[in-house]
Amino acid sequence: MSSTDMGPANSVEMALRFHWDALLETIPGPQSNFFDDGGHSLLAAELVDGLEQQLDMPIPLELVFEHPVYSDLVAALSEVARQSLT
Amino acid sequence: MSHSARVAVLYGPGSVGPIDIATAATEADIELAFLVADERQRGLLARFGEAHLVGPVDSDGVLPMEADLAIDGIVTFSEMLVPAVARIAAARGLPGHPLASLDRITTKRAQRAALAMAGLSRIAATPIVVKPSGEVLYDRDRDNDLSFPAVLKPDAGSGSRSTYLVRSWTEALDLAVRDSVSRVESRWVLEELLSGAPHPVCDWLGDYVSVESLVALDGSVSHVCVSDRLPLAPPFRETGVVIPSFIGGAPRERLLAATEAALCAVGVGPGVTHTELKLTPGGPAVIEVNGRVGGSTPELCERALGVSLTRAALELAMGRSVAVDPVARGIISTNYLVPAPQRPVVARRLPPPSAVRELPGVWRVTHRIRPGTPIDWREGTESYVSSVWFDAPDPATLAKRLETISAAYADVFDEVDLPENG
User: Fold this and answer.
1) What pLDDT, in 10s, does the model give residues A14-48?
2) Is cis: bond before B251, omega within 30 of 0?
3) Which of A26, A35, A44 sits opposite B352 (nearest CB)?
4) ipTM score here?
5) What pairing do the DSSP bridges indicate for beta strands B150-154 and B413-415?
6) Calpha distance B312→A11 (Å, rounded)
7) At what angle do helices A70-85 and A11-24 cross, to 10 degrees?
8) Which of B20, B43, B365 is opposite residue A38, by nearest beta carbon?
9) A55, A61, B94, B101: most buried, per Cβ within 10 A?
């Protein structure tokens, strides 16, 4: 079972879940797609903006476009967070 | 020193998304400069390209911006910013709507007069002005062809906001005064209610259409497509666009000819236009000309016909000639705006977007509101609860899918008590 099946497992996922819910007004599931659920490019920028401030690390905007599915985005963000620590 | 072509986009409410604008600019080999009046939005737009803080628009309608910002064109995808863009374009000698036409492009009163003078659509209408003191200026005898029921609407604006069906002068004046106090309108138009004719191909569709057109620097007009419309929700709220239209042959040609004549009468400058026409027993009657890209049409046009209106708008803004070749891809694309009832309600039980997305043909679902939010139908088209984008291969399937989607929202609303003047 993945972390997204069990609910927020770490700060990255908690932050993503919070901002996703706030922007799209829907609680994401593992297979939720940011753009299919009403996200658009300006909201993607807002999502990244919010995540950067909360997680205190730079996040490329492209990440949301390349990984629009929630569980994929959690994994991609976690990788960015891991790299920012090294 | 020369620079490559750069087009400024004055960004505002209702605009095409920045990634779509940035993509279109890249495809057209255009440098992009977003202009926006809000620092936070400037920061967000800077993620997509160069972004500058401007304005806000001053009392003379002038938008303060960096004088040394070198641009070859300027455009907006936001109705409320059309005048500011026209003024900047005129001041800098760039392509744009002529200032002499601006009133006709942005106010219903002047546009109606221009269309009537050109012998296009004579819609009986008269202005009502509510002054800050509460005094109401109107003339019952100004247009003797005006009869009731009639339509009361703001002189400037879009999306059928604060638009009412009224049955008497008393009702019209009461509503105008009430909304001038509680809302933002002060200049109104009271106009004839046009009788529509059934859509010639699908009688369940709305009795009006729109035409997306390109106006070149030399004034020549080419049309991209005719769009059908889903039926209005009462009183006049739009519920969606269907691209391409099912109307073909001679009726389509009549729509295009009426559109071209209207664009000429209003005097639009180079750019993309969105013209709405009512289907009437006497032929098409122009409802309104918009000097900008229509809402939701860029994505539908691209999906169904392979044409980027966004790219065309950028290129036309800098005076390039644009030739498009719409090719039907065998799908009909629709953006259905799920309307709320015409009474005070709260949307309690919105279906999860993932559940709606599972329905046949659906490819995007956006809830505009959270469950529990009160909805004011007087906001017009913008009072919709959900935007559902879907495709269908033919009219019968489109109707069936629309019915299925509507059924998913059948048990959403609870009635509530909301102040009428709220």
Assistant:
1) 999 999 999 987 888 898 889 877 788 999 999 99
2) no
3) A26
4) 0.79
5) unpaired
6) 44
7) 130
8) B365
9) B94
